[in-house]
Every structure is written in structure tokens, then in C-alpha cells.
């Protein structure tokens, strides 16, 4: 779901100023957008940089940041994750997990 999108043509100097402003906001932990929007940035962020040549004379740079809201509820484990965690939980309770060892 898109929250906000802005696309425009600017000078190289204005782009550099915008990137400096964005860097400052990222460092502070909150990015502002639109008239009154803001989003909190987690302490750990996944980053992606993509540089493409889209023709003889056209280039693009895409920068993407993504993170999980630390206040969000943890996701439910997938069946594979639950199965991997099952033996560790059984050992912690002092129980042996014998279902997998009999081949049943």
C-alpha cells in the first residue's frame, strides 16, 4: 500500500540538498513527507541501491530502504519455522522429541 509518492524534475543542486535533508531525517529516526506526514525509522534498516543504464543516454539510480516497525506484533511462524523451533522448545522443557526419530 502506497502512503505517499512524489515525482518531479529538479536541479542537481536541489536533488543534493533534498538527499542531505533526507539523510538528516533518517539519522534522527523520523522521515517527514507531504503536508503533515511522518514515519518512524527503525534502528536497523535494509538498504538497496540499483544503478541502471536504460539506453545509450539514460541512467537511473534507485535507492530503497525498508524496515519492520519494532512496535508491530511479531509475525506468526511459518510451519517450517515452527518445526525448527520445536526441538529447542522441547529440550528447554526437559522433554524429548521422539516423533521425528521413529519415521512416523
From TrEMBL:
Biased composition (Basic and acidic residues): 72-88
Disordered: region residues: 70-104
Leader peptide range in chain numbering: none
Pfam family, one: Amphi-Trp
Boundaries of every Amphi-Trp domain copy: 3-75
Annotated NCBIfam families: amphi-Trp (TIGR04354)
Protein name stated in the entry: Amphi-Trp domain-containing protein
Source organism (scientific name): Micromonospora lutea
Amino acid at each position: 500500500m502506497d502512503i505517499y509518492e512524489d515525482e518531479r524534475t529538479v536541479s542537481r543542486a536541489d536533488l543534493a540538498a533534498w538527499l542531505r535533508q533526507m539523510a538528516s531525517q533518517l539519522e534522527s529516526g523520523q522521515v517527514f513527507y507531504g503536508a503533515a506526514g511522518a514515519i518512524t525509522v527503525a534502528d536497523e534498516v535494509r538498504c538497496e541501491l540499483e544503478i541502471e543504464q536504460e539506453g545509450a543516454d539514460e541512467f537511473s539510480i534507485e535507492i530503497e530502504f525498508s524496515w519492520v516497525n519494532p512496535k508491530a506484533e511479531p509475525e506468526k511462524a511459518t510451519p517450517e519455522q515452527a518445526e525448527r523451533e520445536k526441538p529447542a522448545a522441547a529440550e528447554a522443557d526437559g522433554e524429548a522429541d521422539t516423533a521425528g526419530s521413529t519415521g512416523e
